[in-house]
């Protein structure tokens, strides 16, 4: 009798377990890079905000804007975290299934100007006649870099020697080996250089360029149409994380994302998070505003990389984020 009771109990438990498992929605997400700059995403993972929404996130690093967009278009991933300029490039090529920006994660450039020599009273004019080791041509870091230089009256083509033929992965090592008087670096490399005396952070391109939709979550329109509920849940989890980051100290944020960066010390994580948070790099909500969209295209246009002007409502969907925020 006890064996029969146990057997009947198992029959009841197994369907329930299967039902619960079926209720979890899986999303494949590709991030263009794995960086502290994306701290709110990792907070959403570590604090269980995706789980609260019944989502299971398969996160991979797709390493580069072109590769990330290819993964989106080929259904290799459901959602991509990448610069908004990539959606403009695809739309300009005549896409029949546009890639839509639905949730913003970072709202400033994430690079810093690092000098080889310590400069106590830096002025942008000091870059004239120098050698500047910039980022890859056509990418947001390089476009922002050129935009900021021009804002300070510096012609990147004539007033300095601009080097932009070094692969992203090799820029830091090229500077270490003696190339360039100044270099444009992401964190934590910039802070590591400063700690080791190999360079000095003297300016922030994020502060200089203002708000832009630097990295956003995007998906094909067909994906949003077919999986609207999952996209909304995803956006809600991101918003929870953004608010958590807004309300917590850099030390707490560093601790929350530490598992994502096992080779980086808590002290360095805290330094980088503090720098990004203090300059407003982390968006506090997922809405990508029209002013930011216009600023993005102005920067692309200034760099000669804007194929055509595209209206905000063509490639940006704010309704999902607005619904999540209003709840």
Could you characterize the architecture of this molecule?
With 327 residues, the protein is an alpha/beta fold. It folds into 2 domains: 25-108 and 212-326, 3-Layer(aba) Sandwich (D-Maltodextrin-Binding Protein, domain 2), CATH 3.40.190; 111-209, Periplasmic binding protein-like II (D-Maltodextrin-Binding Protein, domain 2, 3-Layer(aba) Sandwich), CATH 3.40.190. Helix content is 47%, strand content 16%. The chain has 16 helices and 10 strands. It has helices at residues 2-22, 39-46, 49-52, 65-73, 85-92, 140-151, 171-176, 189-196, 205-209, 221-226, 228-247, 250-257, 266-278, 290-302, 312-315, 319-326; strands spanning 25-31, 55-61, 79-82, 99-106, 111-115, 131-133, 161-163, 182-186, 200-204, 215-220. The strands form 2 sheets. The protein has a 5-stranded mixed β-sheet, sandwiched between helices. Strands 7-6-8-5-9 form a 5-stranded mixed β-sheet, sandwiched between helices. Helix 6 links the parallel strand 6 and strand 7 (161-163). Helix 2 (39-46) packs across helix 11 (228-247), helix 11 (228-247) packs across helix 16 (319-326) and helix 12 (250-257) crosses helix 13 (266-278). The radius of gyration is 22 Å and the shape is globular. The protein starts with a helix and ends with a helix. This is NitT/TauT family transport system substrate-binding protein. One of its GO terms (cellular component) is periplasmic space. It is found in: Periplasm. Residues 1-20 form the signal peptide. Keywords: Signal.
